[in-house]
Design goal:
2 domains, Aspartate Aminotransferase, domain 1, 15 helices, adenosylmethionine-8-amino-7-oxononanoate transaminase activity, five-stranded mixed sheet, 443 residues, pyridoxal phosphate, PyrdxlP-dep_Trfase, Aspartate Aminotransferase, domain 2, PyrdxlP-dep_Trfase_major, Aminotrans_3_PPA_site
Length: 443
């Protein structure tokens, strides 16, 4: 059906099979955004909704940023597409240089993808291929973590550990094992920042090494701060222990920073925030402010140079995507990084973090709240599930917040919030004031 221009909502919603959505429920009562500017979305019925989630953890600079809009418009008129196989265009190289300059010191090379899921697949493939390139071809196993989220492709859900993302898709990749998750609610409840208990869980990697043999393991991938599973901060000392074990056994450590990259914790990357350096970093989301799909894997010089062997006319890594380093995405990425820099948004996130944490934790006395966690500009409010109806209570909170003009996100019975880094103190107050009203009214 054609769109009626007098009504921004199509009169037929059946064709679009929506991702991670209760399609039947949504299409009975659709929630449509038709505009966005700075901290707010505009709904089809003309209401303003405060964006408490930065879209899907991605619009870190807010919406309708002039530098990004202008860069996309200019690039589309100048050159819409250029192939990245055996050809190049300047902005892809310029953006890679900018990423290298802002990344932690060990990271000197950038491999472009189109999403966080593709960045994970790319990092896993690079890790296995790297081990082969250095004469460790028996290292093909991958280690993930329970409750981990690494996108939705087969590699990502294989190393991931969220049951509903895995259980209906068959046996997945072979040769994958999992560390235990770090969620210890009996010991680490209502914590600001890193919890005190749980560093010992990194030592489970030693048990996995003993079971399979270090010579079979290529890489271990984790989110330094787990986002989509419900905002789980790493226990103090956990990342350091994991790094030490991986180094000792020749296992590459991959940080999935699709959520934590680009200022979410007040630093360029979580690797800097926690002062623990992995071997590969996956990124996406905030790279282009969510405006154009783009991802990237950051690699150390050591990993990159291991592939740069043999005759120079031969392809070193048989991997890539049609849209790797897309010109319009590259332009968006450059404008996004410039916006972060010129507007001091990473520093702003660090300055706002204490006020944000106080706001999140002010909800501790609300009905049904059993835990609260926060770090940087991320917060989670965990609710006691309704007996026999998991997820229903948090989803009702999502619907009620939307009706009251605030966008939150839920995962299970956990409310997750991650606003654009441009949020003000007053908007933080509005967000948590609205959520308090909603929680007070939940059954």
């Amino acid at each position: 059906m054609a769109l009626d221009r007098s009504n921004p909502v199509p009169n037929d919603l059946s064709a679009f099979w929506m991702p991670f959505t209760a399609n039947r429920q949504f299409k009975k009562q659709p929630r449509m955004f038709v505009g966005a500017d700075k901290m707010h979305y505009t709904t089809a019925d003309g209401r303003q909704v405060l964006d408490g989630t930065a879209g899907l953890w991605c619009c870190n600079a807010g919406h309708n940023q002039p530098r990004i809009v202008e860069a996309i418009q200019k690039q589309a008129a100048e050159m819409d597409y250029a192939p990245a196989f055996q050809m190049g265009h300047p902005k892809a190289f310029e953006l890679a240089n900018r990423l290298r300059d802002m990344a932690p010191k060990p990271f000197e090379h950038v491999f472009y993808t189109n999403s966080g899921s593709e960045s994970v697949e790319t990092a896993l493939k690079i890790a296995i291929a790297y081990q082969r390139a250095i004469g460790q071809g028996s290292r093909t196993r991958l280690i993930g973590r329970e409750r981990g989220y690494h996108g939705v492709n087969f590699g990502g859900i294989s190393v991931g550990g969220i049951v509903n993302n895995r259980k209906v898709f068959g046996s997945l990749l072979t040769g994958v094992d999992h560390l235990p998750h770090t969620h210890l609610p009996d010991q680490n409840r209502f914590v600001k920042g890193q919890p005190e208990h749980g560093a010992h869980l990194a030592e489970e990697l030693e048990r996995i090494v003993a079971l399979h043999g270090a010579e079979t393991i290529a890489a271990c991938i984790i989110e330094p701060m787990a986002g989509s599973t419900g905002v789980l901060m790493p226990p103090k000392g956990y990342l350091e222990k994991l790094r030490e074990i991986c180094t000792r056994h020749g296992i590459l450590l991959i940080f999935d920073e699709v959520i934590t990259g680009f200022g979410r914790l007040g630093s360029s990357f979580a690797a800097e925030h926690y002062n623990v350096m992995p071997d590969l970093i996956t990124t996406a989301k905030g790279l282009t402010n969510g405006v154009i799909p783009m991802g990237a894997v950051l690699a150390t010089k050591e990993i990159h140079d291991a592939f740069m062997q043999g005759p120079e006319h031969l392809i070193e890594l048989f991997h890539g995507y049609t849209y790797s380093g897309n010109p319009i995405a590259s332009a968006a990425g450059l404008a996004t990084l410039e916006t972060y820099k010129q507007d001091g948004l990473f520093e702003r996130a660090a300055e706002l973090a204490p006020y944000w944490a106080d706001g999140v934790h002010s909800l501790r006395d609300c009905p049904h709240v059993i835990d609260i966690r926060s770090e940087g500009l991320i917060g989670a409010v965990e609710l006691e599930p309704i007996a026999g109806e998991p997820t229903r209570r948090a989803f009702q909170a999502f619907l009620d917040c939307y009706d009251k003009g605030v966008l939150i996100r839920t995962t299970g019975d956990i409310i997750a919030m991650s606003p654009p880094l441009i949020i003000s103190n007053g908007e933080i107050d509005q967000l948590f004031g609205t959520l308090r009203d909603v929680l007070q009214g939940l059954k």
